[in-house]
UniProtKB/TrEMBL annotation:
Residues 1-43, 80-109 are annotated as: Disordered. Pathway: Phospholipid metabolism; phosphatidylethanolamine biosynthesis; phosphatidylethanolamine from ethanolamine: step 1/3; Lipid metabolism. This is Ethanolamine kinase. It catalyses: ethanolamine + ATP = phosphoethanolamine + ADP + H(+); choline + ATP = phosphocholine + ADP + H(+). GO terms for molecular function: ATP binding; choline kinase activity; ethanolamine kinase activity. The keyword Nucleotide-binding applies. It is an enzyme of class 2 (transferase). Residues 96-106 have a biased composition (Gly residues). Keywords: Acetylation, ATP-binding, Kinase, Lipid biosynthesis, Lipid metabolism, Nucleotide-binding, Phospholipid biosynthesis, Phospholipid metabolism, Transferase. Gene3D superfamilies: 3.90.1200.10, Phosphorylase Kinase, domain 1 (3.30.200.20). It comes from the Eukaryota. GO terms for biological process: phosphatidylethanolamine biosynthetic process.
Length: 478
């Protein structure tokens, strides 16, 4: 879940020492990829990882000797498309990076550029977040029972997140695992947890538009939304988080950089009030939302147990929220590709925002999953579809605003090399839009465009529900 506090979590004898040892062993960003055991971790750190696995997994893990256990840092390499898996070269994740608590479950054998805001560290500069290790039993050691042969060891290290938030995330993780909606949880301890290692790969941005996969994502999202979870049902997450971001932006030290004075430039507080008024007039049921259904958080399983080949991961933003935000945010993800090899390390293709026909394809499969066994007339079905089109595209503006605020904060504190506030004139790629501030409809403002896009529509709600010139439900299917 999203961080709600500011206390430093972590500690614990095993996790804290392992995190510190790993950091000392991996300060060089030019380290060779796929280094074998012993060159990437100290022997002492490996013994501590062994202790975690032995205590919480039992079985053959108790019989293995420390030197037999393979412990590999999960890390990234810049290559190919995708964004959530990999054994490759290390990447940095700065303090305040999107999702401070945890990232998506890593897939086996992937070597891909991370989404810069979501990379899980074993190397860090300027802030330590999660450390992730793949721990494996030696092949010659037989299993005793049903214990896993390999697991992911996640260590929180020192993260700027409330301890309560970590507890809630672990509860959520366990519940989703029991419902076969997420990876299995093998152990929870104060400094981290042991998770299922899943042979898989994340989807690519271009795959989100494939009809079969889009239908499966819609079905998966509908099932997620249908869950009952033991968390507050009040939808405070969206505006509560944005209000906190606004306060943090207000508290930023003065700067001479004009692109950092966006609070005054866009009257963000007033504009957020306009956004709230618009969404108050947009009916949207409160459901349990993932809040970040992007390609890197959707795993394509290599060995599915049934026809259900997709798995959602990375639940740190999950909460009860408005349904429209989850769907509208997902539609926005069709636009952004983070595999670009050069500054500012992203591309945005506004024309890739789903057409009306593609949105209806998604919506029909979403509604079909939610109303299994119910029969509605064609007229009722059309109304449900049209209402959800308007709902999703209005909440897409909230997605722009949310990640726009997030990006302002990232630009002020992140150590990641990424063009959070790059404009076209600054050398933006293919339109110059960033993940959180890129324009969704039409050109213009480049790196600050995503926020500007939301503001241009929020300030003129008479354009709704067609959203004026935006690439939303007003578009014709091509």
């Amino acid at each position: 879940m999203a961080a709600e506090g500011t206390a430093v979590a972590g500690g614990g004898a095993v996790g804290d020492r392992l995190a510190k040892d790993s950091l000392r062993q991996s300060q060089c960003p030019d380290a060779a990829p796929n280094r074998r055991r012993g060159s990437s971790l100290s022997r002492d750190a490996e013994r501590r990882a062994y202790q975690c696995c032995r205590e919480y997994l039992g079985g053959a893990w108790r019989r293995a000797r420390p030197e037999e256990l393979r412990v590999d840092p999960v890390r990234w390499e810049v290559r190919g498309q995708g964004s959530s898996s990999g054994l490759g070269t290390p990447s940095l994740r700065g303090p305040g990076a999107r999702g401070e608590g945890a990232g998506g479950v890593m897939a086996a054998g992937q070597v891909q550029r991370p989404r810069p805001e979501r990379a899980l560290l074993w190397v860090c500069s300027g802030g330590l977040s999660n450390l992730l290790f793949r721990c494996s039993l030696p092949d010659h050691l037989p299993s005793v029972g049903k214990e896993p042969r390999e697991v992911l060891l996640r260590l929180y290290g020192a993260i700027l997140q409330g301890v309560d938030s970590l507890v809630l995330e672990s509860v959520m993780f366990a519940i989703l695992a029991e419902r076969s909606l997420g990876p299995q949880l093998y152990g929870v301890f104060p400094e981290g947890r042991l998770e299922q290692y899943i042979p898989s790969r994340p989807l690519k941005t271009c795959e989100l538009r494939e009809p079969v996969l889009s239908a499966e994502i819609a079905t998966k999202m509908a099932r997620f939304h249908g869950m009952e979870m033991p968390f507050t049902k009040e939808p405070h997450w969206l505006f509560g988080t944005m209000e906190r971001y606004l306060k943090q932006i207000q508290d930023l030290p003065p700067t001479d950089l004009p692109q950092m004075n966006l609070l005054e430039m866009y009257s963000l507080k007033d504009e957020m009030g306009n956004l709230r008024k618009l969404l108050d007039s947009t009916p949207s049921p409160v459901v349990f939302c993932h809040n970040d259904v992007q390609e890197g958080n959707i795993l394509l399983l290599s060995e599915p147990e049934n026809t259900d080949r997709l798995m959602l991961v990375d639940f740190e933003y999950s909460s009860y929220n408005y349904r429209g935000f989850d769907i509208g945010n997902h539609f926005c993800e069709w636009v952004y590709d983070y595999t670009h090899e050069e500054w500012p390390f992203y591309k945005a293709q506004p024309a890739d925002y789903p057409t009306r026909g593609q949105q209806l394809h998604f919506i029909r499969h979403y509604l079909a999953e939610g109303k299994k066994g119910d029969t509605v007339s064609q007229e009722e079905q059309r109304k449900l579809e049209e209402d959800l089109l308007v709902e999703a595209n209005r909440y897409a503006l909230a997605s722009h605003f949310f990640w726009g605020l997030w990006s302002i904060l990232q630009a002020s504190m992140s150590t990641i090399e990424f063009g959070y506030l790059v404009s076209n004139a600054d050398g933006g790629a293919a339109g110059g839009q960033s993940r959180c501030l890129g324009t969704l409809g039409g050109g213009g403002t480049g790196g600050r465009g995503r926020l500007a896009q939301a503001l241009s529509q929020v300030s003129f709600p008479r354009n709704m529900p067609s959203l004026g010139s935006s690439s939303t439900s007003s578009r014709k299917d091509s």
